[in-house]
Amino acid sequence: MARRLAEIREEDLRRWVGAFSGLRHGQREPEALAARADLFARELEGMGLKASREPIAYGGRTYHNILSEARGREAGLPPLLIGAHYDAAWGTPGADDNASGVAALLGAGRAPASAPPRRTVRLAGFSIEEPQDAGDRACRHGSRHHAREARRRGERLAGVYILEMVGYTDPRPGSQRIPVKLPAAPEAGTFLGAVGTRRSRHLLAGIREAAARHVPGLQVITHAVALRGFLLPMSRMSDHAPFWDRGFPAVMLTDTAFLRNPHYHQPTDTPETLDFAFLTQVTRALAAAAAEG
Asked: What is the mean pLDDT of residues 3-10?
């Protein structure tokens, strides 16, 4: 495991964040977003994985989720899905939101690509997660389509890890806001948050225990919400929510977004603001959890 995790390198994560950053809003910069979809597919294929496209119709255009998988050794086990959206909110280069998540997905995906995991690991780059206009209250269109189709086909999933902003830290006391009282949550924004439901408690334990064993410098704070997060609406603000709503166990991994990062949805969300050592730790913890799950 140590050798496999050592293959996850900070310089690769820096390159991916730089490549996937930049204006790429679905309705306002569709060509730039399509170029990121092509790049996503090329990066997966460069790892020896086959990439496919899942079309999503929205607003008169067709967008694509980019999908791949690394086959597991035990074919009878339900697969694990790792996902991250690759679009950005209007007017922001979206380095943390969500080029950091894409980079972590690619880094974590490289490990099963090079050595078959116990169970199949699916990788999904979701499109148009961000609101597309002032009236788009639902958003998360790519993941909603994928979760709906997976349920329609009767697929079984061991779980879903969604990467949503995983590259920003702030070590200053008081830099971290917490919407609910959580034991052991520090006042400084230096930890990884993992938010799930009771149905996904095994995934919460998996990422927490994998980090403790293999990335001891990374603190993971977990929280299981009730009623699919409807009592805490901010807990539903990413691509894990459609999987919750379709009955799949899912966890959002996050640096807590606007509860920590002042560049959230701003033009200042650039690669220079990120903590790449932290992003490397997150990616290694996720890769370990996927390998041991």
From this structure: 91
Q: Which two tokens stand for residue 259?
A: 């509860």
Half-sphere CA count of 246, side-chain side, radius 13 A: 24
pLDDT of 266 over the 90 cut? yes
DSSP category for residue 262: T
For the stretch 185-236, pLDDT in tens is 789 999 999 999 999 999 999 999 999 999 999 999 999 999 999 999 999 9
Quote the Cα angle for 199-200-206, to 5°: 145
Q: Are strands 121-126 and 80-85 parallel, antiparallel or unpaired?
A: parallel
SS (H, E, C) 138-186: CCCHHHHHHHHHHHHCCCCCCEEEEEECCCCCECCCCCCCCCCCCCCCC
Q: What burial letters (b/e) apply to 32-53, b meaning 16+ CB within 10 Å?
A: ebbebbebbbebbeebebebeb
Nearest residue to 243 via CA among 156, 123, 143: 143
CA 265 to chain centre: 17
Q: pLDDT confidence of 1, banded at 50, 70, 90?
A: confident
- In order of start, what are the domains of the chain with their CATH numbers? 2-292 (3.40.630.10)
283: Cα separation from own chain's centroid: 10
Residue 282 has phi, psi (to 5 degrees) of -60, -45
CB 197 within 8 A of CB 177: no
